[in-house]
Amino acid sequence: MPIRPPESHIGSSIKLKWVKGAIKGKRGRSLLVNLNLTPMIDMFVILVVFLLMVFSATGEILMQQQDIQLPKAYSSKPLERVPIIGISQKVILFEGEVVMDTIGVSEKNYPDLKLPQLTKVLKSARDAFVRSNPMPSDQEKMAKWIEESKQIIVQADEGVPFEIIRLVMTTAAYEGYSAINFAVVPAKGG
Amino acid sequence: MGGVSEPMPGGKGKKSLVVDLNLVPFIDLLTVCITFLLLTAVWTQTGRINIDQSVQKPQKVEPQKEPPKRLTIMIDEKGYSLKWADEPVQTIPAGGGMYDTERLKEELKKLKERLPKDQRVIVAPKDTIPYKEMIAVMDTCMSLGLSNIMVADAASVAGEMM
Predict the structure, then answer these.
(1) Is the ipTM of this complex over 0.90?
(2) Residue numbers of A between 73 and 102 with CB closer than 8 Å to B
(3) Whole-angstrom Cα distance, residue B152 to residue A23?
(4) How many Å apart are CA B58 and CA B63, to the nearest integer?
(5) For residues A2 and B7, what is the distance between their CA atoms, to the nearest angstrom?
(6) What is the dihedral of CA A12, A14, A19, A23, to 10 degrees?
(7) Within 13 Å and on the Cβ side, how many CA atoms surround B1?
(8) Nearest CA to A113 among A156, A161, A172, A157?
(9) What angle do CA A4, A10, A13 make, to 5 degrees?
(10) pLDDT, tens digit, 9 for 90 and up, residues B93-115
(11) Is residue A86 a contact partner of residue A146, using CB atoms and an 8 Å limit?
(12) Is the CB of A107 less than 8 angstroms away from the CB of B136?
């Protein structure tokens, strides 16, 4: 192998002649290419504008459940962060945790209109709420506290029979959650 | 490109006016913005239809001299039954499993002129009726401004629907 002087050189296996030439400076074409960034920035700006438009300051309150298809409604109000009861065709959930099966929930099986498993979790949720936000002594604040403490969201599948909804509502009302918010998908127009 | 490459007047004519803007910080900023917005994006908007005191605990009902007038909408397999105070029951039949929400809206619109302010509406679906039909009726009421809605059991209002 011949001894070469210390300079930039390239292996003879590389057949790109112009690369060799460019390195040696024999050709006029430079290896430095100016990348055109304008289309990328355009795309980024459009993305930012779109994402800013769909941005919601309240965040995602309801996690979309796989088997719960919410009904549509034209006149709805924005949701607030309160406990959530989910009712799918198969199970009843509380805050995303499965509480009991929907199958078998009927007035015949629960003649006192209370679902014992749901009662238990609602009771512990209320206890936790009272522990973290004790009832204020101020008259005005107390009214607000009471109003806040009785709110609950019912996120039910659109095909669930009313009987199950009714039993869940009764159970919630017995536990002091009497202001029931039915979660819906806001329909456009109307 | 629209760059200006004329030599500066009065200058020595060597300094070009075409300046390469350093876009890297701008791209960094945009990337951070996109990442943040993608993570916080809410793809499914949800709303609520609220009712209050839907089911009351059993309590002693004191007899009243003049009971308040009630507006009841019962939903069963045959369709809607609408009853206001002492007037006869109005039925809006459902055709082929589809409920006639449009007609219900018209009837309620006609009725609304005679209703007192903040009239309570009782929506009473039968046990087998799907939840979405109840929401459709509640939505119709709310779109007409009747937002004081109460949900009851069809069996409890069946007596007055006769």
Answers:
(1) no
(2) 73-79
(3) 86
(4) 15
(5) 52
(6) -40
(7) 8
(8) A172
(9) 110
(10) 888 778 888 888 888 888 888 88
(11) no
(12) no
**pTM to 2 decimal places:** 0.72
Distance CA B119, CA B151 (A): 14
Provide mean pLDDT across the span B69-76.
86
Sorting pLDDT into bands at 50, 70 and 90, what band is B36?
A: very high
Average pLDDT, chain A: 82
Torsion, CA B96, CA B102, CA B106, CA B107, rounded to 10: 40
Chain A 100-139, residues with CB within 8 Å of chain B CB atoms: 107
Task: Please tell me the distance from the alpha carbon of residue A113 to that of residue B63, in angstroms, as a whole number.
Answer: 26
Please check whether residue B50 is in contact with residue A179, taking contact to mean a CB–CB distance below 8 angstroms: yes
A188 has a chain B CB within 8 A of its CB: no
- Distance of alpha carbon B21 from its chain centroid, rounded? 50
Strands A97-101 and B90-93: unpaired
Write down the H helix ranges in A55-138.
116-132
Sort out which chain A residues have CB atoms less than 8 A from B125's CB and list them.
Answer: 162
**For tokens 């060799």, what's the residue?**
A20
How confident is residue B13, by pLDDT bands cut at 50, 70 and 90? low
Task: Tell me which amino acid residue B39 is.
Answer: L
Q: Find the CB nearest A163 among B30, B38, B127.
A: B127
**Considering just the CA atoms, what is the radius of gyration of chain B in Å?**
32
| Rg of chain A in Å (alpha carbons) | 32
**Which of A111-115, A169-173, A186-190 is predicted least confidently?**
A186-190
Contact predicate A173/B33, CB 8 Å: no
Quote the pLDDT of residue A46.
95
Please state the φ and ψ torsions of residue A88, each to the nearest 5 degrees. Answer: -105, 180
B1 confidence band (pLDDT: 50, 70, 90)? very low
Residue B157 to residues A136, B81, B119, B123, B160, Cα–Cα distance (Å) = 39, 11, 17, 10, 6
- Rounded Cα–Cα distance for residues A50 and B34 (Å): 10
